[in-house]
Write a structure and sequence with these properties.
- By secondary structure, the protein is an alpha+beta fold.
- The protein has a domain at about 85-150: Beta Barrel (OB fold (Dihydrolipoamide Acetyltransferase, E2P)).
- It has three helices and seven strands, in the order ααββαβββββ.
- The chain has helices at about 10-35, 40-45, 85; strands spanning about 45-50, 55, 90-95, 100-105, 115, 130-140, 140-150.
- A hairpin with a 5-residue loop joins strand 1 (about 45-50) and strand 2 (about 55).
- About 5% of the residues are buried.
Length: about 180
């Protein structure tokens, strides 16, 4: 007679679908049981101890340090203050276009080329001049400002020590006299 409308594959697929549905319901119940929802604030708070480690116990109030807000530095590197004399660099003008008012200085220490514009000059300079300058960050890199010709410090003139006086040619040295008693 007639075969059943439901084949073996259809029965297996139905069993798989029901099994999947039951597993999903079981996982849902487990999630509800282990859920963090509804816990108190005290269960969710973490503390940082004096050494910077995360802890579940609150810190000891006796170890509390008073910190002034002025002492806190955010995003500031720990460097010594820069001496203003160290900001002044020495270099040689390798190229300068007087018509356009720009050029380049080769730094004596770092050997890098620094852009110079006529607006950053304090004195007129020419190609090949030795100069002192400071730098600032420009739109395309370092830019020289406060440019002036380098004047080497004059060596201190040593004052000659007075020479011992020699007796004149016509004078005879005085002979020591013997003490009288």
């Amino acid at each position: 007679m007639g075969r059943s409308q439901e084949t073996f594959n259809k029965k297996e697929n139905e069993k798989k679908r029901l099994k999947k549905k039951q597993d999903k319901a079981h996982k849902k119940e487990e999630r509800r049981a282990n859920s963090d929802k509804g816990k108190g604030l005290d269960d969710m708070i973490a503390y940082v101890d004096h050494e910077g480690n995360i802890s579940s116990t609150p810190p000891d109030p006796k170890r509390k340090l008073a910190i002034q807000s002025e002492d806190i530095q955010v995003s500031v590197s720990r460097q010594k203050p820069v001496d203003p004399a160290d900001l002044i660099r020495k270099g040689t003008i390798t190229f300068f276009n007087e018509a356009k008012g720009y050029g380049f200085i080769k730094d004596h220490e770092s050997q890098e080329s620094v852009f110079i514009h006529a607006n950053g000059m304090l004195e007129l300079v020419r190609e090949g001049d030795q100069v002192n300058f400071e730098t600032e960050s420009g739109p395309k890199g370092l830019q020289a400002i406060q440019v002036r010709k380098y004047v080497a410090p004059a060596p201190k003139a040593a004052t000659p020590a007075p020479a011992p006086e020699a007796p004149a040619a016509d004078e005879t040295p005085a002979e020591p006299t013997e003490p009288t008693e």
